Amino acid sequence: MRYDTITSDQNTISYNTDSPAQPNKLNDGLTLHFVFGGDARYSIGKRELTLHPDQFLILNNGTKYTTKMDPGAPVDSFAIAFDQSFLHNFRKSGQPYDQPLNETLYPLKNDLRRHVQQLKSYMDEGQQNEALINESLKQCLENYDLIYTEEISGKLDQLQFANRDTKVEILRRLNLAKEYVVSNYSQNISLNDVAAHACLSVNHLLRTFKQAFGQSPHQYLVQVRLQRAKQLLRSTALPVNQIVNMVGFECASSFIRLFRSRYGVTPFRYRSFWELS
């Protein structure tokens, strides 16, 4: 299934279940990229990152990128490209959307997830009510703004530097570190690997990462691995021991202990609760 719908306001809403590779694509308008199933790998300049179903990616107008998909692993991809005039009318403060810091991965939180899924339902059903679609688009933007404020503006405030330009540059590098962890969580990555990818010394990475995100890079890596494991427990019937290896843990007992500590239940009980719901 595939569609590319252009509204009367020149916003484009796209869905693709085939998800072929898209080489050298030019992003048209500020675009929110999502996947509802599978993972999509993006190349943006020298950056390599992976988009998972519990995240979304922002790309600005004119950004060049390519996508790569694993053969035999279809991806349900969904994207909303906002026309510049629509954005200007929505945000009358004059603050531009095209900001270098905003091009990164964000957590797909409940309100935005709900509005995006509602918009997708409208498009799947062939909804022709433009007012309804535009209201849904505005709700998506409103929730993106809230997430941006928390994930970018809020993190800038946490960095302990006097100069704002320094804060912006450090956060840009920290976002590269987070992208690297998210995209390589299943591998045996080291702190040196993360620091090198972010162009920071290990000490500088440790200090500033904790300031911005309230946890160490290793703690963030464990969090990502547990989130991926939770997703696999919910969406597949794979054995727990196999999931442990897939998400990068070496020991099943430590994985079970960490999972229970974070979520309050064992992986087995979590899966049984989900199957009964």
UniProtKB/TrEMBL annotation:
Keywords: DNA-binding, Transcription, Transcription regulation. Residues 175-273 form the HTH araC/xylS-type domain. Residues 1-22 are annotated as: Disordered. The keyword Transcription applies. One of its GO terms (molecular function) is DNA-binding transcription factor activity. The keyword Transport does not apply. Gene3D superfamilies: Homeodomain-like (1.10.10.60). It comes from the Bacteria. Signal peptide: none annotated. PANTHER family: HTH-TYPE TRANSCRIPTIONAL ACTIVATOR RHAS-RELATED (PTHR46796). This is Helix-turn-helix transcriptional regulator. It comes from Mucilaginibacter myungsuensis.
